[in-house]
Amino acid sequence: MDLLLWRHAEAEDGIPDIKRKLTPRGEKQAQQMAAWLKTHAPENLRIVASPARRCQQTVQALDLSFETDPRLAPGNSVNDLLAAIDWPEGGDAKHHPVLVVGHQPTLGRTAALLLSGSEAYWSIKKGSVWWFSNKTRLNETQTVLRAVVAAEMV
């Protein structure tokens, strides 16, 4: 199963946090990354986004259908994120690739857990995608980092 973590693009400051919208720069970041994802992301991609406005705007740049899951909202845990997507099993859509559009620090903590086995405060840059693959080899589950792509690099 492939897992792509996409941090929302740059957003305005403000309160309430859940209603913060993308800046013009953030809109450009979202469009750039969406174009890259359309070219490079795996087929049959399940897309799940935080209900926060900035994540909704980021994922809408893809112009593809997506789910909104409150377990991806700001302040939720790595366990919430993994439960929302049923990683690594994938539930009924076993082995379907998943794109999560979410927030720091949850995305960074998830990346750390997947690669090192424990949560840590790793930073994922706004608008960036980290792409992981999970596979079983010799009866051992392995997670591989396939790509890290920043919006301004595409």
Notes on the protein architecture:
This protein is α/β, with parallel strands linked by helices. It has one domain: Rossmann fold (3-Layer(aba) Sandwich), CATH 3.40.50.1240. The protein is 29% helix and 23% strand. The protein has helices at 24-40, 53-60, 78-85, 106-116, and strands at residues 2-7, 46-49, 67-68, 98-102, 129-137, 140-149. A 6-stranded mixed β-sheet has the order 3-2-4-1-5-6. Strand 5 and strand 6 form a beta hairpin. It is globular, with a radius of gyration of 14 Å.
Compute the CA-based radius of gyration. Answer: 14 Å
The low-pLDDT segments are none
CATH superfamily placement: Phosphoglycerate mutase-like
Number of H- or I-type helical stretches? 4
Tell me the CATH architecture.
3-Layer(aba) Sandwich
Which word captures the global form?
globular
Q: Give the integer mean of the pLDDT values.
A: 93
C-alpha end-to-end distance: 24 Å
Return the CATH topology.
Rossmann fold
Number of domains: 1
Order of helices and strands: EHEHEHEHEE
Structural class: alpha/beta
What's the CATH class label?
Alpha Beta
Give the proportion of residues in helices: 25-40%
The total of beta strands comes to 6
Biggest sheet strand line-up: 3-2-4-1-5-6
Beta-strand residue fraction:
15-25%
Largest sheet data: 6 strands, mixed
